[in-house]
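Sanity check. The docking grid for adenosine-5'-triphosphate depends on where the pocket ends up, so I'm generating a full predicted complex first rather than guessing from homology. Inputs follow.
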Amino acid sequence: MAILSLQGVSKSFGALKVTDEVGFALEPGEALGIIGPNGAGKSTLFNLITGNLRPDRGQVLLDGRDITEETPMQRCASGIGRSFQIPQPFGQLSVYENLLVAARFGGGLSAAEAPAQCMDILRRCGLARHADRKAGSLPLLDRKRLELARAMATRPRVILLDEIAGGLTDAECVALVATIRAIHAEGVAIIWIEHVLHALTSVVSRLMVLNFGRMLMIGAPEAVMAAPEVREIYLGIEA
Ligand SMILES: Nc1ncnc2c1ncn2[C@@H]1O[C@H](COP(=O)(O)OP(=O)(O)OP(=O)(O)O)[C@@H](O)[C@H]1O
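Predicted complex below; grid placement will be based on this.
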């Protein structure tokens, strides 16, 4: 059974249809990439999955269970974690404290369980040496790592990554991709919106293209990137 599926999900802001009959199923442990031009509705789709937005029509299912009416907190507790396009740590708290908040309130861990879990995630995300540093003072790569670590601390079975590689140097991108691959190897399913295509295609096994809120295509990354309509619309190359 699919871990997460969307069925005919639509959302408009006034007259602007931002999500138009989107439907797909994510298998347990799968990594799916989402690409599309600016304004195609990618982040909106994430907000519909996490419950930050409610669809006008359609359903969101987790393990076959309809969660369309559930709050973001309920969905987080059920195993949907996310990172934000613009990192949103508690800047005045330390890196460790940021994880603790996510583990206690998002992951439902007890005060006794949370510290060891948080230290483990900090190590896996390459942040252990920054544990006591104020989150607001981290350089960009480490802020991205913290965004990933905070999502991991909520103990997700599906993690949504929103343009997490944006703004990184090539070397930083390689380091972040290694961390994402390690998380995926643990069995966490991933949906990743990303403009940095080489990073995305080094992790995902399926790619979805969104354009004007519609799912233009979904399939193997090589086939999708080679499709004339994708090259024309996404890359601006005439077919
Ligand atoms: N809360 C909102 N109210 C009104 N319009 C919105 C709202 N959120 C998004 N939009 C509009 O919906 C469209 C899709 O936005 P969205 O952020 O989902 O696109 P995106 O594909 O993630 O873009 P980008 O690649 O630039 O991040 C845009 O035209 C945006 O201005």
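Relevant for the grid: The chain has two domains: 1-78+157-239, 88-154.
Also worth noting: Residues 13, 18, 36, 38-44 surround adenosine-5'-triphosphate (CB under 6 Å).
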